[in-house]
Amino acid sequence: MTRVLVVDDEPQIVRALVINLKARKYEVDAAADGASALQLAAARHPDVIVLDLGLPDMDGVDVIRGLRGWTRVPILVLSARHSSDEKVEALDAGADDYVTKPFGMDELLARLRAAVRRAEPVAGAGDDDVTVDTGDFTVDLAAKKVHREGRDVRLTPTEWHLLEVLVRNTGRLVSQKQLLQEVWGPSYGTETNYLRVYMAQLRRKLEADPSHPKHFITEPGMGYRFER
């Protein structure tokens, strides 16, 4: 069973999420503040976290940073903050998706399922036994790992999925819409700020000179291309 950690200080939202998740056979833990969330995440190892940013003891972005210090678990932000800058800050800290309050339960559950899918290993694909070496870093598609300068590079599930789509299309332009729909799901197609944030993350982690990338190329207004 998939275990979900719900982090929110509004009891009615927690209750609604717990009821709906348990009705769909999820196991659910709940925390009302950031400190409890970090403790529960370490103790219970959830498969996905639904996190409010407005917590009583710390900002949710700091919780994301704390989690990203040791885990790649998918993090779905649930927040009343609507501004693009705040969304980008949460994504930049390591969140995988962002849902604004008030929200539709069906949409939230669909995004939660998509986040869990992105974190699952792909089994049985014949072309998974592929290692791509750029000279600066190596991508192991079978093991879902990236090595740079002799060390593993820690990627979130969404960062990995974006990298994987680009690497499997080496040398070819992948449109913004295609990337959004492949990585985040068919209901996405216009959230180009997601791509901007995650491409910046990949460049920071993998490019020798992130401000002058040679592997993750932007085609302005069209999409992105991966080059060895």
TrEMBL record:
Residues 129-228 form the OmpR/PhoB-type domain. The keyword Electron transport does not apply. Keywords: DNA-binding, Phosphoprotein. The modification 4-aspartylphosphate is found at D52. PROSITE patterns: OMPR_PHOB (PS51755), RESPONSE_REGULATORY (PS50110). It comes from the Bacteria. InterPro entries: CheY-like_superfamily, OmpR/PhoB-type_DNA-bd, Sig_transdc_resp-reg_receiver, WalR-like, WH-like_DNA-bd_sf. The keyword DNA-binding applies. Residues 129-228 bind DNA. Residues 3-116 form the Response regulatory domain. This is Response regulator.
